[in-house]
Amino acid sequence: MSKLVECVPNFSEGRRPEVIDAIVNEVRKVSGVKLLDVKPDASHNRVVVTFVGEPQAAKQAAFHACAKAAELIDMEKHQGEHPRIGATDVIPFIPVSEVSLEECVQLANELGQEIAGKLNIPIYLYEAAAKIPARKNLPDVRKGQYEGLKMAIAKPERHPDFGQAKMHPTAGATVVGARQFLIAYNINLDTRDVNIAKKIASAIREAKGGYRYVRAMGVMIEERNMAQVTINMVDYTGTPLHRVFETVKSEAARYGINVVGSEIVGLTPLQALLDAAEFYLRLEGFERKQVLETNL
């Protein structure tokens, strides 16, 4: 099998299809890259794009998509439920085959330097690529979001890893990194009280003493008139989806509310779903090879 990396850039646009298409077309143009998924979210005003390719081709596609986003998205006008610091908010590289996490770190450094040098967008490195321990976790890098970072970036402790210590006038800043596979998972509640969602998120979040490998926050989804616990599962093998779902359901019941549904944003490993099936169906001795599609 050839060298493959996955790239999952998040762009701060989920409401204008023509802008999303223009950004995604930059990925489609690059030879050696396969577009896997495009997941826009109007309430978050954000789109998650997933593609795979040979490392240098993936880096090229990420750069061109970032350049197009900088051209078409004005962060001075952007509003959305999801935390963000730039038109291209975050670009992670994930090893898929014949590529190490260390090689993805090198890729992140190369892309960060290129974006800062050619597009004048300040770059922060996170996760495995972080040069500063305090920047390992994405929420810490995003502290203050776009509006807060405009002022804070001038402080020595918030200087970017690449580029000048000032925001691009319309594209803001971008976070680039390398990590293992992450599942973006949202759980919707039958309440408009976003404070309840925030309390539940705090109960499951690793940083607050909750589950390891879980990042979570509570947000309001205006278009559906409900609060949501939005979650990043940074290692589903360490903390599985069903455990988080059951805890959110239990915590919600304490406030007299229910879980009305959940959603996975973008792609997910088959094993994560098989683990949930094994748990809820109480399967005994079930093996991955029993899935029909894996044998075709």
TrEMBL record:
<dbReference type="InterPro" id="IPR022384">
    <property type="entry name" value="FormiminoTrfase_cat_dom_sf"/>
</dbReference>
<keyword id="KW-0290">Folate-binding</keyword>
<comment type="pathway">
    <text>Amino-acid degradation; L-histidine degradation into L-glutamate; L-glutamate from N-formimidoyl-L-glutamate (transferase route): step 1/1.</text>
</comment>
<dbReference type="GO" id="GO:0030409">
    <property type="term" value="F:glutamate formimidoyltransferase activity"/>
</dbReference>
<dbReference type="InterPro" id="IPR037064">
    <property type="entry name" value="Formiminotransferase_N_sf"/>
</dbReference>
<dbReference type="InterPro" id="IPR013802">
    <property type="entry name" value="Formiminotransferase_C"/>
</dbReference>
<keyword id="KW-0808">Transferase</keyword>
<dbReference type="Pfam" id="PF02971">
    <property type="entry name" value="FTCD"/>
</dbReference>
<feature type="domain" description="Formiminotransferase N-terminal subdomain">
    <location>
        <begin position="3"/>
        <end position="180"/>
    </location>
</feature>
<keyword id="KW-0963">Cytoplasm</keyword>
<feature type="domain" description="Formiminotransferase C-terminal subdomain">
    <location>
        <begin position="181"/>
        <end position="295"/>
    </location>
</feature>
<dbReference type="InterPro" id="IPR051623">
    <property type="entry name" value="FTCD"/>
</dbReference>
<keyword id="KW-0369">Histidine metabolism</keyword>
<dbReference type="InterPro" id="IPR004227">
    <property type="entry name" value="Formiminotransferase_cat"/>
</dbReference>
<protein>
    <recommendedName>
        <fullName>glutamate formimidoyltransferase</fullName>
        <ecNumber>2.1.2.5</ecNumber>
    </recommendedName>
</protein>
<dbReference type="InterPro" id="IPR012886">
    <property type="entry name" value="Formiminotransferase_N"/>
</dbReference>
<dbReference type="InterPro" id="IPR037070">
    <property type="entry name" value="Formiminotransferase_C_sf"/>
</dbReference>
<dbReference type="Pfam" id="PF07837">
    <property type="entry name" value="FTCD_N"/>
</dbReference>
